[in-house]
Every structure is written in structure tokens, then in C-alpha cells.
Amino acid sequence: MKDYSTFIFDSYDFDAPSGEVRLRYSLDDEISFTEIIEIPRGNRNKDNLENTLFALHLAAGTSYFKTCCPKKIEIRSGSLSSDQAAFWNSVYENGLGEFFYENKIDFTDLIDFPVVGNIPAPKERPSNGRVLVPIGGGKDSVVTVEKLKAEGRDITLLRMGSHPIIDDMVSVMNLHCITVKRKLPRKLFEMNAQGALNGHVPITAMLSTLSVFIAEMFNFDEIAMSNEKSANEGNVEYLGKQINHQWSKSAEFEKGFSTYIRTYINPNLKYKSLLRDMTELEIVGEYTKHPQYFDCTTSCNANWKIAGKPGEPRWCGTCPKCTFVFALMAAHMKKDAVVNMFEKNIFEDESTIPLFKQLLGKEGFKPFECVGTPEETIEAFKMIAARGDFNNTPVMRMFTKSV
Predict the structure, then answer these.
(1) Which of 153, 270, 320, 395 lies in disulfide reach of 367, CB 3.0 to 4.6 Å?
(2) Domain coordinates of the chain in residue numbers?
(3) Using CA atoms in the order 386, 390, 395, 398, what is the torsion angle rounded to 10 degrees?
(4) Is 167's pLDDT higher than 60?
């Protein structure tokens, strides 16, 4: 793969009648990428969108920057103050941390967003009490939505792309849902096939920025995320930095992005997670109070590839997310209910023991997935052991021998 010296944020535009956003990038003006985002029709606000469109352009750029990590960044689509440049330096360095680790890239002084031009001032707009909730098909979204329902809030859901699993969840929630479609350019996949660098990107940072764009366009006052306390803990140290798979779900990102929104986009738009003070174990405890969702949620990332038709599994049963969430559910629910939910008893599968040892902090480091801390995993296992109905399984025998 050829080396390129400059990553260029070229231009963006929004066609209001069609609802199409185009985000353009290039490498040395030789390789071009155009990402397309399709916004549904409705009573759209077409004013005061430049600042948030520019932020969306910057957030989505991680997918294209990582193809070869050029030493120079050039911005043609807008202006950045020194504080803005520092924020995006942090998003790219921390959000791509896992990518740098997996590809053995020295990220020291690699990311340097330039300070350019004059910054348009944000404009306030009247408040109306409406809250936008991005959802992804998992337990966390359920807990957030049910908390807001209990408060009597005016809720609208937001999802990126369509999938039968989320269709089912939306149906049970019985709330209006905005569906946004994202189309990645074919050139990106061609470059990946030819050997371009690839790996994890801070997708929550991109989704958060997209949520701000939707909130501004459709006049919402608040964006309610579903990011928990456990997301603050990293996975492994690399080149003196703690690498965190969930960095864009962390309190550090939330605080920085909230300040960015107030300063550069809309002083009155709130961005916060309703689950920030809760562990994953506590969130599952709340989730189990809402059995109407048991058959229409999943935290397994593999199912976005293998599921999609009625009758196909919602849980692969072998990935870090499945093993972790199974343990949390088993801490709060009796054996029969958990096995019915997962359609298998994961604790009977000896091949998952190495994963559970990682999750428990006994071997290696916490998997690069959206999973909780070893401390709360240990607490979950203690709760399971105290109840006793899973104790005669290979996984629980492994745990009890190591305590």
C-alpha cells in the first residue's frame, strides 16, 4: 500500500430536500472518499447547521484517516480554534488507541489538527423538552428509555441503519424512531482489501456527533446516551497510554464533547449519559425488571452478521460480550430464565473458560469489547455461586477453584 503524506478534510454538503449529507475526504488529492448519510424526511430545521455538519465531517473522518495514518492533516471544510483542535486531537488519539495498539503504530505526536480561520458563533434556540435517545439493540438502551418513560419525558429514538433486532425493540418501546442510513464508500473497502490499515474506530464519537446533527435538525433539547461507569476503565497500557476500547463511551469523552457542544454548536443542547453512575452489573439488575424486552434485545456484536431472519440466534454464545452478559444475567436471574434467553447454557461450554478468565482478571487483560470491569464480573460470579443453580458447570467450577 502506497504511503500518503496528507489526510484532507475536503468538503461536505447537505441537500435539504433529499436529506442527503455528503462528507468528502482525500489522501494527497489522489485518493478520494465520499461518505453518504441519509436523513429521513420530516419537519427539518435547515438553519444553524454548519457548525454541527463540520463536527460530523471531522468525527466520521477516523474511518479514512486510519487507512494509512498520514503525518499531516489539512482542513478545507471549516475552521478550528486551538481548543477545538485539542479536542479532535484527543478524539483521534484516544479513540483510535486500540487500532494503534493492534497495528503496532507509534501514535506519539502523530495527530495534529491545525488551528485555522475564524470560528462561527453558536446560536441558541427555544427549548421544548424533547429528548433524543440513540439505541443499538442492547440492554443499556432499554434501561435508559424506561428511566425516561418513568419521568414522563417526550422521547424519540434514533438508530443508524435498519435491523430486525432493533425493529423488535422499537416495537416494544412503542416510540417514534428516526432511522439514519450511512453509506461508506466502495473505495474504502477496496483499499482494505489491498492492505490498507484497518481496525477499531470510535464509533460512539461518530454516533454522538450524528445525534447532535439530528437534534439540531429536528429541535431536541437533550441527547440521552446509555454509557455506563464501567466504560471509564481501559484495557491495556501501550506507549505510556491506557488504551480503552470504550474511550468514546467514557466520562472523559462525555465531558469534553458536552463542552464542545455548548461552546461551538448550541449552548442549550444537553448531551449526557443517564447510566454514567451505574456499573454493568447494576444496569442488568434494572434491565431484568422489564421482561417484555427479554426476547428482543442482544448485546452480541456477532449477531449483526449472523442474525437478520426470524429464528436465527441473537447470541453467538462464544464472544466476550455473550460470555460477560450471560454472567451478569445469571447473577440476577435463575438458571432456567437465563438459559431460555440465550438458548444455551454458556457455563457448560468449556471453550469459553479462557474468555471468562480474562473477564475475571485472572489472565491477560480485559477483552477489546464493551464489557465491564473484572471487579464487577467477580461480584457477579459470587452472586451466582451464592444462589447455587449454576455451580455444577465447568465455568463455575473454574471460578470456585480460583477463589
Answers:
(1) 320
(2) 6-124+178-273, 299-402
(3) 40
(4) yes
